[in-house]
Amino acid sequence: MCNEQPIGFIDSGVGGLTVVKEALKQLPNENILYLGDTARCPYGPRPAQQVIQFTWEMTQFLQKKNIKMLVIACNTATAVALEKIKTTLDIPVVGVILPGSRAAIKATKTKQIGVIGTEGTIKSASYKRVIVQKMPNAKITSLACPKFVPIVESNQFQTSVAKKIVAESLRPFTKQKVDTLILGCTHYPLLRPIIQNVMGTEVKLIDSGAETVGEVSMLLDYFQLANDRPTKDREVAFYTTGSTTMFDRIASEWLDEGSVNSKHIVLGEKNL
Amino acid sequence: MCNEQPIGFIDSGVGGLTVVKEALKQLPNENILYLGDTARCPYGPRPAQQVIQFTWEMTQFLQKKNIKMLVIACNTATAVALEKIKTTLDIPVVGVILPGSRAAIKATKTKQIGVIGTEGTIKSASYKRVIVQKMPNAKITSLACPKFVPIVESNQFQTSVAKKIVAESLRPFTKQKVDTLILGCTHYPLLRPIIQNVMGTEVKLIDSGAETVGEVSMLLDYFQLANDRPTKDREVAFYTTGSTTMFDRIASEWLDEGSVNSKHIVLGEKNL
């Protein structure tokens, strides 16, 4: 066993960077590999079978890089592919839906919980199923926000266009009050200030990705996989199937860790 | 797989009840079996090899009861026996030292952390080792408090005798300031008000047992072992190798769940 092996993070695009940002903070000794399937993003509207296939391709790429743990830092992929990948791989595999659900159950006082996510995630009803199992009298309002991911991927998440789209998309919550809202897509924390503004400061926003890193940390200890030797120059590497220029711009700004230089890779037979 | 199987909790005596109290709250659907080796308590001053043997005997008793997970709700036993038991059993096994360490790292601002525990736990230096690996510049002050467990087991934990002994035992902390103190023995939360009073309200007390239940909950989900079917009449059963009268008195008062009726059992060749 070599605990210096990296932890792998996969996402449909740049969304999983919100999880990596938290990992960089909470897990200062860990080497990190990130793969965003930007060329085939968004995953949200795709059929489940295709999302499973794409998620497998990302997983296999990182397996060859000898990762010690896999984090599916994408809600859509977690919803449809986590169980299969977890039972197949011989390393721990973590998704983002359970940690987000647990945090929401802890946060809510009225038991009125909102979930926003991609069409794929909302259609899978994964959050709803997990939460209701644990808190049978919870009332869950689920809403697909298919326009959010493209705004983030095109680096428009701080613009007035973003504000307009978020306000329009979240309108159903003016009728259906919730005290807790799960950001059920790892892209959404980049829109957090706008979402908070639309929902009001009294609504607690749950960042599933950030919650996930707590679980990753615990599982590293449980499986005795934590890299406890402090490393000055840990490896943090980024791969994208899409444009490295756009990826690097968003990653450099969001992660606040200096300039990001991602590498372009090709997955699958065709990349689009 | 049958998720209605109980979770097993073991301790040298009544201390693990502080963990069970938290489990009853956080895990409302789970069936719970508790075994306290009261007849051979305290474990703290015993040689490691003997603690390992006693812990095995408790583990084997609960294994026959078909538990789905084992919680070593005893710091002394966790320190010396966790790794061995974890690698031998084919069910998840959780100790109390890692969760307590993680919580202390999160809580401290000055990185001056105190640890109190039995002689066995302090001698093992388990907390110190775990914390320094994760926070290399932390300063750990460890102190064995061998008089605390007997006070709790004899149901004197709310008396003036307890106040006197706690004040005397914790005197070293008047010289060595800490901002966080780990209650590194599951018996100690019963002395919490007195300990808090002696340490001052500004010192954060970390209840390792309570922290552990968060980890249990997460692992139940990770291994898909949670009992998600709400049970009206879940089983909560208590076994002790010592006096059921004393055990029931402490358990009934501490757990606040109605009258506890423990069963007496015998472990090992001789019970004393």
Topology (elements, then pairings):
The structure is a homodimer of 272-residue chains.
Chain A: E1 7-11, H1 17-26, E2 32-36, H2 48-63, E3 69-72, H3 75-88, E4 93-94, H4 97-107, E5 112-117, H5 119-124, H6 126-134, E6 139-144, H7 148-153, H8 160-169, H9 172-175, E7 180-183, H10 192-199, E8 204-207, H11 208-222, E9 236-240, H12 244-255, E10 263-264
Parallel strand pairs in A: 1-2, 1-3, 2-9, 3-4, 5-6, 5-7, 7-8, 9-10
CATH architecture of the largest domain in chain A: 3-Layer(aba) Sandwich
Radius of gyration of chain A from CA coordinates: 18 Å
Number of strands of chain A: 10
Q: Please report the number of helical segments of chain A.
A: 12
Low-confidence runs of at least 5 consecutive residues of chain A: none
> Major β-sheet of chain A, in short?
6 strands, parallel
Helical residues, percent of chain A: 40-55%
**How many structural domains can be distinguished in the coordinates of chain A?**
2
Proportion of beta-strand residues of chain A? 15-25%
Order of strands across the biggest sheet of chain A?
4-3-1-2-9-10
Given this structure, which CATH class of the largest domain in chain A is correct? Answer: Alpha Beta
